[in-house]
């Protein structure tokens, strides 16, 4: 039998979420890039234009979900890369805690920025 | 596969001359992933300072950045990283589902070629008006 090497965690949901967020991000990242570089040229972006887009509930919700899924996918990807490098024990727990806090901070601040771009409140 | 063999460390980049296409795909996916997550944090940080006060600061910050050639070049770099990560990510989803495993090397090459084509075709748009 071949040597078994895996950092796969049986019964974990993070593996599934990494893939589900991937499917969502494929579409939304492409949309984000296309809208803000090709439909609207980046050099022509103004606060008024941004506010008009972000004040639409559907667009706002999409961008907020983009923030949350990208943060999970990116930070979990970093964590997985470090585990693959051999991170284990106390260091693994510490890195996990730091990355979790960084994710929460990014989502909170990203939400504040998103709200500052709207006239919804 | 039966029998055991010393596969060595996956992370032993010093063996890069021995790498197969799948290994290069793995390395490029990691590299582009690190760039994208780094950019995500930077992006929110820049937008945070730009939205901290009145609306003109936001407009001036973005238009000021867009006047710099280096920013336009870095944007093309970001596009190439994002497009490759997306296309190779689609390839990985198929690999995970067990589809086209026997062609995983060809689909990696296809990811590279399509990324290159999209990026080259986008350069005029990204450099316009700088």
TrEMBL record, chain B:
Keywords: Heme, Iron, Membrane, Metal-binding, Transmembrane, Transmembrane helix
Record-level GO BP terms: tricarboxylic acid cycle
InterPro entries found in the cross-reference section: SdhC_prok (IPR039023), SQR/QFR_C/D (IPR034804), Succ_DH_cytb556 (IPR014314), SuccDH_FuR_B_TM-su (IPR000701)
Recorded GO MF terms: electron transfer activity; metal ion binding
Main location group: membrane
Spans through the membrane: 23-47, 68-87, 107-128
Domain of life: Archaea
One of the Pfam families matching this protein, by short name: Sdh_cyt
GO CC terms in record: membrane
Subcellular location: Membrane
Protein name: Succinate dehydrogenase, cytochrome b556 subunit
């Amino acid at each position: 039998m071949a040597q078994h090497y895996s950092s796969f965690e049986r019964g974990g949901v993070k593996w599934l979420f990494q893939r589900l967020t991937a499917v969502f991000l494929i579409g939304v990242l492409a949309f984000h890039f296309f809208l803000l570089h090709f439909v609207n040229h980046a050099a022509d972006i103004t606060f008024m234009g941004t506010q008009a887009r972000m004040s639409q509930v559907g667009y706002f919700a999409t961008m907020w979900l983009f923030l949350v899924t990208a943060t999970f996918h990116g930070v979990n990807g970093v964590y997985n890369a470090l585990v693959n490098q051999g991170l284990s024990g106390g260091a693994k727990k510490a890195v996990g805690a730091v990355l979790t806090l960084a994710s929460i901070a990014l989502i909170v601040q990203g939400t504040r920025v998103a709200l500052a771009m709207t006239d919804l409140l | 596969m039966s029998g055991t063999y010393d596969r060595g460390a996956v992370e032993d980049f010093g063996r890069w001359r021995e790498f197969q296409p799948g290994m290069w795909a793995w390395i490029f996916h990691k590299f582009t992933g690190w760039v994208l997550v780094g950019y995500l944090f930077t992006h929110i940080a820049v937008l945070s300072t730009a939205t901290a006060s009145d609306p003109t600061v936001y407009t001036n910050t973005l238009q000021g950045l867009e006047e710099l050639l280096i920013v336009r070049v870095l944007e093309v770099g970001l596009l190439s990283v994002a497009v490759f990560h997306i296309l190779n990510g689609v390839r990985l989803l198929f690999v995970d589902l067990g589809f086209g495993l026997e062609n995983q090397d060809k689909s990696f090459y296809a990811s590279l070629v399509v990324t290159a084509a999209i990026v080259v075709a986008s350069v005029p748009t990204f450099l316009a008006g700088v």
